[in-house]
Amino acid sequence: MTTTLDAANDRAQQLREQIERARDAYYQQDAQVLSDAEYDALVHELEALEQEHAELQTQDSPTQTVGGGVSALFDPVVHAERMLSLDNVFSIDELREWAAKTVASAGREGAWLCELKIDGLAIALRYEHGVLVTAATRGDGRVGEDVTENALRVAGIPRELSGSGHPAIVEVRGEVFIPSAAFERLNALQERLRARQLELSRERWAARPEASRGPFDEEAQLASALRRFPAFANPRNAASGGLRQQLDKKSGLEREAGDARVAALRLYVHGIGAWQDPPVASQSEVYGLLAEWGLPTSPYLRVVDEVDGVVDFVERYGRERHSVEHEIDGVVVKVDELALHDELGATSRAPRWAIAYKYPPEEVRTRLLDIVVSVGRTGRATPFAVMEPVRVAGSVVRQATLHNQDVVVAKGVLIGDTVVLRKAGDVIPEVLGPVAELRDGSERAFVMPTHCPNCGTELRPMKEGDVDLRCPNARSCPAQVRGRVEHVGSRGALDVEALGEVTAAALTQPEVPETPPLDTEAGLFELTIEQLIPIRVVVRDGETGEPKRDAKTDEIAHRTPFQRNPSAAERKQGLEGPQPSKQALTLLAELERAKTTDLWRQLVSLSIRHVGPVAARALADWFGSLEAIEAASREELAEVEGVGPIIADAVIDWLAVDWHREILQRWRAAGVRFATPDHPGPGAAAAAGGVLAGITVVATGSLEGYTREEAQEAIIRAGGKAASSVSKKTDFVAAGPGAGSKLGKAEALGLRILDAGEFHVLVTEGAGALALPEEGGDAEASDPEGADAAAADAAPTTSTTDEKDE
Ligand SMILES: NC(=O)c1ccc[n+]([C@@H]2O[C@H](COP(=O)([O-])OP(=O)(O)OC[C@H]3O[C@@H](n4cnc5c(N)ncnc54)[C@H](O)[C@@H]3O)[C@@H](O)[C@H]2O)c1
Ligand SMILES: [Zn+2]
């Protein structure tokens, strides 16, 4: 028993020290040596230990105190009433438990006040007879730091309250924060200031006599600029540092930065301290009164009677977290009735009448192992961060793009840094910035390579002044060729399933044979089984791209994706040597099919700038063949709806390049059709008016055989108008499963409703080809399942697909 207690005591001691260190950095230096989640976990562990071993409880434990102290840089301010922290819950269950416990202690039910938990820092504003006398930080809860001077410059902190009849003393509490948009601007300003500082030091260096100066040390100067104008990791730290700075001691660029930081601060009030007999009975009414006095209250408040309402609020802002103008880290739930605040009281660190529900973190920390440059299909050289894998917002993240060298500099990250990584919901992961306080001097700066890492060609901007660098060796750069070959197979292009990233790499960068089967995409349709079978590739790690090693021999692992050994039965029949794998046969079969696929797909597969599926469809529909496109002038191309001058130029430019012409010539020779059969010639279909000329159709729900876009395109291609809402002007409504209010409206207006099969008839043959509506069709329409079954009968899916494949 004693040993466990000893062990627990040691651990508690360790935790307290870690927590105090983190608190000191957080509240005094506006820095974070731990992430919030790491910090919360330590506090929770300590709480659990103290609960298990009552002997370990001490009054000065961080579980019993309010974090924060008073820096010697500021005068102390004694709060008339203590400023407390909040207790936390991390799940809906814990939240309900807290609410039940609170109702039980209160002895009666009452309304709950829901608020957003603003991620900023607490401030106490003391007004005497309506005039601000001090503004103070929370400090340790009893004594805070005097920040009146800066507070008076914060928009929304009135020097004098409006209205009349103010109490002799009132303490107003609130959160000072920096809105997300202002935070972005602030970081952009820091970046500009860094650049100006660098410029200044260069000027100073240049002014020195040449004999006495060494070379300009760009790296050291950049590091110094980064120290003076760091990229802020998050709005909370930026806000805290902004309020707690000594502006009058700053000058020059630093003063400019400091002023901007104060100007970015905002306030929302969220409570009261000392106030004798407030003339209202609830916290929500308090806000009403404070608002009348000219103090800013949050617009995101809700009073609910039931815990279910609280849960709704929590869930809603869990989803809409990023539609709020400021960062939030949770929801604060308060008992609305003021009388109950007194009755329920507080612990040494938090009131019992309020709780903070904390959302799961969207920001985590990890180590930046390297910054690697990758060259894509279009030659763009993009630096990206390679990180120690870390779980954030529901997925494991290892890599994040850094866009270009300017972004790397702007983020101020060094290789080896601990970095803050953010992934908000479905959003792409982003490196926010370094945790500079954790540097140990071993970090190094990223230098953008001057030459393509894949082919050694000198990188350069496409146009003068472009930030992005590109590898100009479009024809032969292995990374670009591989990217283009992969693009040919992609869904929006030829949709060759057997031609993905790995196969594209095998065809363009195999280990064996030495000369790859493809040195550009020109040879794609000339591939033969004999060429494929011997291909051998190095097996690479899907994430790092590093070659994998055989577990037993430690040799680099290889694969021959296009061959297999003959089976015993085959061998008996005299077959010897490697046989083509299924992958090889599928690839060739799919390529064969692609030769006569839709013209627009073939156009997309050529990797012409700006020519994606939309532009390609417009071109294919209008011209009907690649030949006609080649014959068209710039003006003729630009005239086509959905094309325009930029795309026209891109097409003309692409066609002028000799190795592009070689692609066309070899693909054609191999049998690629590049034409829509029976197309009546450029512009003819549109000019003649399609089968749906003058007819308006609304497509809703999922129509078998069509995606939403395909259905709209089918209407437009047939010369009709694809409308998005149902009105009296609508001629037909095509409705499938999932059709919502539009179907109801169509029925109400008595419009002709079509199922998927009828829709197909409509867009291919016109309204005249539709069977007359059935008598008693009402019954069918009100029975959607029956209607679906009928639709399936009327339009066997095969007939639709057959036609599409042709
Ligand atoms: N990363 C670190 O190293 C580190 C160190 C210390 C603290 N922290 C962070 O700070 C937290 C603890 O700090 P704390 O004691 O200030 O508690 P807290 O931030 O969890 O909650 C209390 C504070 O919430 C603020 N608040 C925001 N909106 C509010 C609203 N609508 N109503 C009432 N209050 C509102 C108030 O300023 C109040 O003081 C930790 O959970 C952690 O997230 C992190
Ligand atoms: Zn290259």
Automatic annotation (TrEMBL):
Sorted UniProt keywords: Coiled coil, DNA damage, DNA repair, DNA replication, Ligase, Magnesium, Manganese, Metal-binding, NAD, Zinc
Stretches of the chain forming a coiled coil according to its record: 5-59
Superkingdom per UniProt: Bacteria
Acidic residues composition bias: residue spans: 775-786
Biased composition (Low complexity): 787-800
Annotated spans, Disordered: 543-580, 772-806
Keyword hit for Zinc: yes
The protein's Enzyme Commission number: 6.5.1.2
Catalysed transformations (reactions): NAD(+) + (deoxyribonucleotide)n-3'-hydroxyl + 5'-phospho-(deoxyribonucleotide)m = (deoxyribonucleotide)n+m + AMP + beta-nicotinamide D-nucleotide
Basic and acidic residues compositional bias, start-end: 543-558
Pfam families: BRCT, DNA_ligase_aden, DNA_ligase_ZBD, HHH_2, OB_DNA_ligase
Annotated InterPro entries: BRCT_dom (IPR001357), BRCT_dom_sf (IPR036420), DisA/LigA_HHH (IPR041663), DNA_ligase (IPR001679), DNA_ligase_AS (IPR018239), DNAligase_adenylation (IPR013839), DNAligase_N (IPR013840), NA-bd_OB-fold (IPR012340)
Active site: 117
Positions with a binding annotation for Zn(2+): 452, 455, 471, 477
Group of enzyme by EC: ligase
Cofactor requirements of the protein: Mg(2+); Mn(2+)
A GO molecular-function annotation: ligase activity
Domain BRCT: 687-762
Primary role: DNA ligase that catalyzes the formation of phosphodiester linkages between 5'-phosphoryl and 3'-hydroxyl groups in double-stranded DNA using NAD as a coenzyme and as the energy source for the reaction. It is essential for DNA replication and repair of damaged DNA.
HAMAP family (UniProt xref): DNA_ligase_A
Recorded family membership: Belongs to the NAD-dependent DNA ligase family. LigA subfamily.
Name of the protein described by the UniProt record: DNA ligase
Origin species: Agrococcus versicolor
